[in-house]
Design a protein that fits this description.
Keywords: Calcium, Metal-binding, Repeat. The protein is mainly α and 93 residues long. It is built from 4 helices and 2 strands; from the N terminus they run H-E-H-H-E-H. The protein has a single domain, classed as EF-hand (Recoverin, domain 1, Orthogonal Bundle). It has a two-stranded antiparallel ribbon. The relative contact order is 0.11. The structure holds calcium ion (CA).
Amino acid sequence: MSDIQQAMTLLITSFDRYSGKEGDRHTLSKTELKELLENEFGDVLGKTSDKEALDRIFKDLDTNQDNSVDFHEFVRLICCCTQMCHEYFISKR
Ligand SMILES: [Ca+2]
């Protein structure tokens, strides 16, 4: 499996690990998103212990406003973060 295929597989399995905890196993509830952000991002996107920060992130990700974050909405976050990291590393070269 190529590096990019491995990255795609990891994104899917990582999402599923959190989305399967409660309710619809194909979407993230706010509680599941909080756990994912804490474990996978640390404080990179703000402190998830800050309820307002978590509410804002959840609202920004939930673009179809169905009160859950599906894989499509989650991947947008990953794309944005990956682009920001890429720009950071380019500026350091
Ligand atoms: Ca949604």
